[in-house]
Amino acid sequence: MQWDSATGAGFTTGNPWRTVNADYTTKNVATQQATAGSLWNLYHDLITLRNSETALRQGTYVPVTASNEGVFAYLRQYNNEHVLVVINMGNSTVNDLSLSLANGGITPGTYTMQGKLGTANLDVTIGSDGGFTNVNAGTVVAKGYKVYKLTGTLATPANELDALSLYPNPAATSFRINRAVTQLDIYTLTGQLVKKAGRVAQNETVDISGLQRGVYLVKVTDVMGRKSTIKLLKE
């Protein structure tokens, strides 16, 4: 590892068994740390942001529609915290990017999203459906990103999907779900779909008698279009 520009690249003061690369004086960790915009500093900032925002660690994933197919956008929601992430995956700059979110569950009103990681603030109006339509996120450079944080109460006392649970769990022949969902699928840990239940009402019984004993992943979509995955132990 090339740690710095000292003799031996900061790896050793002795004689390494392999010769240090000739570029160690300029390509090393110390140089990365001292250079704004370096890969080291990018990772440092991303890790710091993730550790400071509960929504990025525990929040529900909600897809956001972008006007450009090369842009990947999503919202992470945890209680009253919402973090919007916008990433331009393409090789060209995107101008006048428009973002839309249906049924975000946020209380209607006008908010200012706080920009993170050097992103400017963004004003957004939340409609009656708890989402937003055609919000102009401006310009996103190629391979660039924007991150925003919105603090606004959910239209419900708690995020429905965060409170979603299966019971009993572990289960022998069937389980119930405490929230109505529009789609419920059961997968093995290797990703094989073993049961497609479709729409399930609140407290409706889901039959799993035909499944073998083991651990499964129950993937659901709630009535607001949000997705989540719950681990199920089949006895």
What does this structure look like?
With 235 residues, the protein is mainly β. The protein folds into three domains: 7-50, no CATH class; 54-151, Golgi alpha-mannosidase II (Immunoglobulin-like, Sandwich), CATH 2.60.40.1180; 166-234, Immunoglobulin-like (Sandwich), CATH 2.60.40. The protein is 11% helix and 42% strand. The chain is built from three helices and 15 strands. It has helices spanning 29-34, 39-52, 54-58; strands at 60-66, 71-78, 81-88, 94-101, 109-116, 122-126, 132-140, 145-151, 166-167, 174-177, 181-188, 193-196, 205-207, 214-222, 227-234. Strands 6-5-8-3-2-1-4-7 form an eight-stranded antiparallel beta sheet. A four-stranded antiparallel beta sheet has the order 12-11-14-15, with no helix packed on it. The chain has a three-stranded antiparallel beta sheet with strand order 9-10-13, with no helix packed on it. A hairpin with a 4-residue loop joins strand 11 (181-188) and strand 12 (193-196). The chain is flat. The model is unreliable at 156-162 (pLDDT under 50).
What quaternary form is this? single chain
Number of folding domains?
3
Major sheet size, sense and barrel closure? 8 strands, antiparallel
- Examine the coordinates and then state which fold CATH places here, giving the name of the CATH topology of the largest domain: Immunoglobulin-like
Helix/strand structural class: mainly beta
Strand content: 35-45%
Order of helices and strands: HHHEEEEEEEEEEEEEEE
CATH class of the largest domain reads Mainly Beta
First-last Cα distance? 49 Å
- Average pLDDT score: 89
Number of beta strands: 15
CATH architecture group name of the largest domain? Sandwich
Taking Cα atoms only, what radius of gyration do you get, to the nearest Å? 23 Å
In CATH terms, the superfamily of the largest domain is: Golgi alpha-mannosidase II
> Which word captures the global form?
flat
Please list the strands of the largest sheet in the order they lie side by side: 6-5-8-3-2-1-4-7
Low-confidence stretches: 156-162
